[in-house]
Design brief:
The protein folds into 2 domains: about 5-210, Rossmann fold (3-Layer(aba) Sandwich); about 350-390 and about 415-580, Nucleic acid-binding proteins (OB fold (Dihydrolipoamide Acetyltransferase, E2P)). A hairpin with a 2-residue loop joins β19 (about 555-560) and β20. A 6-stranded mixed β-sheet has the order 1-6-5-2-3-4, sandwiched between helices. It has a 5-stranded antiparallel β-sheet with strand order 11-10-9-12-15, with no helix packed on it. It is built from 20 helices and 23 strands.
């Protein structure tokens, strides 16, 4: 393989090589003399999902190009990032990551004998590394450190110092792993920029940075470990995979935010198993099987609507099970099952969080609610749909059937009041325009749930600017049934005051209210909170929501009782005597 062929393999399917032609020229000069040394790191937090096949496929390209590749299991990073991996679980999580990533590589035909594996704590606790970290802290401002980690590290209103150290460690790893380049997702661009500025300042060379695009999840937004319906776990059953792919956002003839097509492009056409082409499997009466030699041919046929979404989904499901079956087999042993249990133990608290109740409306009520909200120019984050017969979402944080059977039973005689609704203080960790709806936002809202932030679709785009949404605290109604709004699942509702003339204003908790705390109502508190007692059906929702309003002072009220937090009442700025929904 000549130099240009190696460059093509190294850079194919990347979104960016930072520095453009100059950086590519640097790669070319190194390759002419010796193998390129590259590292890819992953923080050992939530259980890896199928999107991890995207970097695995690129690692396969790097190996084929003759690169010396190091995989870093960034265990210390996982702890520093808001303790996403608690210290007591750190070793177990890292063991799991190493086992599952090795199984992934083997499933796509990559020999792990040619790879080097290392863990951050093997060298990041050394005297030399610590001294260099101190040097970096003297030349890095708080603003720059926070900015560098904005897309990667969990952001809060008052962040811990640990999250600011995270980008500095990732930059310094390039020197201590003795590499020429670092490979990662485009969401790490700000960390790479920090590395290019900081390392030369303490006497180390600037490295080349290779960035993959972010792969959309099955719901259309970024694929995330915290969004169970938007991702497929590597240990999901064949039945669960079939259901999740069937429910995926895959509009006919459209490519943008199509997670199914993106997976075909970034993974299936990049792994040795499908290097000779990918086959769309369909019944003879619909034209029979058709093979595509490359992704561009498949995409063109899909845009021309010669390939239908159902046929694409069925074919991807078949291919996914081919990729995942070796991994499922590896983890079917008692030893591996024990490792999974140690790395991701299910607690009573976690199970209770995942078993929270749902608001169930019938078809007529859904239509009435939608019409009312359309008239008010606001769509709530989630209009609950009728109960379906689809299986429950599965994933690393899902509750087991045995745990749910042991949960406290609902009291059928519990009063219909505000205690049946679970309202929490949340903070908007990210907010973007909905990719397919002009009036909707797509947000990730942190409520300090171990399962991660809630994905919420809201009709606030005409009433609140994107800048005003970022990082603000909100009141979130959490125990409602997840529903799809223009192709994207929403898992909660942002509460707002609505005036008769169509104005909308978000409820605002006090600045010092604790993220994740439950809104309290004097005389109606349930302690401890039992999801079954707070589960809302259609009658409860209608009865309770009708009693929500702001008073003459702008305080949010249920009847004559204020929405209260540990830091004081929830308020609005201007919409007094308005309905809340």
């Amino acid at each position: 393989m000549d130099v240009e062929e190696k460059i093509r393999l190294i850079t194919r399917n990347l979104q960016e090589v930072m520095g453009g032609d100059v950086a590519v020229g640097k790669l070319r000069d190194i390759i002419k003399e010796r193998p390129l040394k590259v590292y890819w790191g992953t923080a050992t937090t939530g259980a890896p999902h199928i999107a991890y096949f995207v970097p695995m496929s690129k690692l396969a390209d790097l190996l084929r190009a003759g690169c010396e590749v190091t995989i870093l299991f960034a265990d210390l990073h996982a702890y520093l990032d808001n303790q996403k991996a608690p210290w007591s679980l750190l070793q177990h999580r890292t063991d799991y990551y190493e086992a599952v990533i090795k199984a992934m590589l083997q499933s796509i035909g990559v020999s792990i004998e040619r790879l080097k594996f290392t863990r951050g704590t093997e060298y990041q606790l050394s005297k030399e590394y610590s001294l260099d970290m101190y040097k970096l802290t003297t030349i890095t401002t708080e603003r720059n450190a926070k900015k560098a980690g904005a897309e990667v590290v969990k952001q809060t209103e008052s962040p811990c110092l640990s999250g600011m150290l995270y980008p500095l460690l990732q930059a310094l790893d390039e020197e201590y792993l003795h590499v020429d380049a670092q490979f990662g997702g485009v969401d790490q661009r700000k960390i790479f920029t920090l590395a290019e500025k900081c390392l030369p300042a303490i006497g180390y060379a600037k490295r080349v940075h290779l960035m993959n695009p972010m792969v959309p999840g099955l719901a259309g937004a970024k694929m995330s470990s915290s969004e169970k319906a938007s991702k497929i776990d590597l240990l999901d059953s064949a039945e669960s995979i079939a259901q999740k792919v069937k429910d995926a956002f895959c509009p006919q003839g459209e490519v943008a935010n199509n997670g199914v097509l993106a997976f075909v492009k970034m993974v299936l056409f990049a792994v040795p198993m499908f290097e000779n082409g990918f086959t769309i499997r369909r019944p003879e009466k619909f034209g029979g099987d058709v093979a595509f030699a490359n992704y561009d041919e498949l995409e063109a046929a899909y845009v021309r609507k010669e390939i239908f979404p159902l046929d694409l989904k069925n074919s991807v499901t078949y291919a996914l099970n081919q990729l995942l079956e070796p991994i499922r087999t590896t983890f079917a042993t008692p030893e591996m099952q024990a490792l999974v249990a140690r790395a991701y133990p299910k607690t009573d608290e976690g199970q209770a969080s995942n078993e929270a109740g749902s608001v169930l409306l019938d078809d007529e009520e859904v239509e009435q609610a939608s019409a009312a909200m359309a008239a008010a120019n606001v769509t709530p984050a989630a209009v609950a749909q009728p109960a379906s017969k689809k299986p429950a979402r599965q994933g690393a944080a899902s509750s087991s059937s045995s745990s749910s059977s042991a949960a406290p039973k609902a009291n059928p005689n519990a009063p219909v009041d505000i205690a049946r609704l679970d309202m929490k203080v949340g903070v908007v960790s990210s907010c973007v325009a909905h990719p397919h709806a002009d009036k909707l936002y797509l947000s990730q809202i942190d409520i300090a749930d171990p399962a991660g932030p809630r994905q919420v679709v809201s009709g606030l785009r005409e009433h609140v600017t994107l800048e005003q949404m970022q990082g603000r605290k909100v009141v979130l109604l959490t125990n409602i049934k997840p529903t799809s709004l223009v192709g994207i699942k929403s898992h909660a509702m942002i509460l707002a005051a609505n005036s008769e003339d169509g104005k909308v204003e978000l409820l605002t908790p006090p600045a010092s209210a604790v993220v994740g705390e439950r809104i309290k109502f004097s005389g109606f508190d349930v302690d401890p909170f039992i999801p079954e007692l707070a589960r809302a059906n259609e009658k409860i929702l209608k009865a309770v929501m009708a009693e929500l309003h702001t008073n003459e002072e702008g305080i949010a009220m249920y009847k004559d009782v204020a929405f209260d937090t540990s830091a004081g009442p929830v308020k609005v700025d201007t919409l007094n005597n308005a309905q809340i929904r």
